[in-house]
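Contributing new records

If you add data, match the layout below exactly. Sequence lines come first and carry their own label; structure lines follow with theirs. Keep one chain per record. Anything else will be rejected by the validation script.
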Amino acid sequence: MKSTERDSSGRGPMDRSLLLTAVIEKSRGLSLVWLIPLLALLIGIWLAYKTLSAEGPIITIHFKEAPGLEAGKSKIKFKDVEVGKPQLGLSGVSGLDTLMAGNYIGVEFSAGSPVREFQGRDQPPRINPETPGRSFTLMAENAGPLKYGTPIYFRDIQVGQVVDVALADDRQGVQAEIFVEAPYHQLIRNDSRFWQINGVDFSMGAQGVNFKVGSLMSLLGGGIAFESPNLNVQEAQPADSGTKFRLHKDLDAIAEGSYRLRKPYLLYFEDSVRGLNVGAPVELKGIRIGTVTDIRLDINFKTQKVRIPVVVEVDPERLIPIGGENEISRFMKAHQAEIDAGRHPGIEKMVEQGLRARLKTGSLLTGQLYVDIDFYQEAAPKKLLYGGLYPEIPTLPSVVDELQKNVTEVVASLKRLPLDKIGQELLGTLKGSNRLLNTPELQDTIRAMNLAMNDIRQLTQTADKQIVNLAASVEKAMGSTIKVLEQIQPGAPMAVDMSNALEELAASARSIRVLTEYIERHPEALLQGKGGKGGK
């Protein structure tokens, strides 16, 4: 009997022969289903490796401020050296690309050990590290026109610029780092001299008014110039990178800075020092040998006496004559003991020979004074005084003070004169002269003199006519005489007599000629005679 069963659904009978039997077998490999996630894992690892290897090391950069920088967006660029906002300057316009791409960080690579932490700069470097050239340091008292980008000139050619300005290590001044491009950096020698260029330089001092106008570039932004005295000397080598130089205020200040040995002296003036300023020159025979460094006021309340102490610094090197180094050396050796004791034997001898200091006006336009040191042989003997803070050089009153004293003395002398009495006597004399000139007798005398002069003039004219007639008669007589002599034999008594008569006649003619010339020069001699007044 065939067995039948109904299925669980109760739909009908289920044939048992149709049932399948499950067989469990062991797997022979990895299923293909796992290949997809495995492949995705490998791709993720490869992408992570590529990302990390391309990202490079993690570094930290410190900035004082970071305007415009955003995490995950701001980029670090190489070869884009401009950082920050657009800048407009004499050297051009920079940072315009930040208007389009936003702020970013620029970087320049250089040799050295790897580091992971940096200090960001507020300004981009003006000089690319790959730019050939050399850096130097300038030392100055204050920054003045020094700033980032100030140009460096050599003979009006820009050869470099200032790349950094900072306070000096001793905090007594400032130092500026400059970069001079190749090949101009070879012009910098150890004895090179730098000075500031001002667009407009106006000063008023003892030398008068000084007004200078530089080039257009210096007028806009100033600059720094330099020169090298031994530029043509082949043995002189270019200065090493980092060499320090002093930056002078101007070209004229270079001569002042070339003298390093300065000795202070004290001067006392009793007259006014109005117009004398610190920095005024100290001159000897018109040559600057020092500078005024301090002006004070000294009041003695017991004696009510006021003096003006003035401190000056003198450069002894300027007093050494050309070729006189050996003589100075011998003098110092001979007085070495005095020099070691703090004395100044050279200045002592000069003071004994009449060296004195006095104030003089350097310019009538500005009224500025300067200290003049010269030899005055007529000055009272004095010596260089010690015992104070500095050795004291004797002084003389200024020329203006002496003039004022002389004028004061003249006025005082005039006041002592009896001017009232003198005026009264002078007035009486004038009155007497007036009465004399107006007297009738004097008027009659003047009229008589006029008549006499007219008579003299008429007499002179008559005498001239008579003398002319007389000369004509003599000439006629001479002609007749010559004819007579031609008929007389030479040596005859009559010829001798005639010859003597002719000589006497010639002498008379000469006398008449002299008399005529004298009367023409002195017609008054006809009245007063030859020995009268005016007849010389």
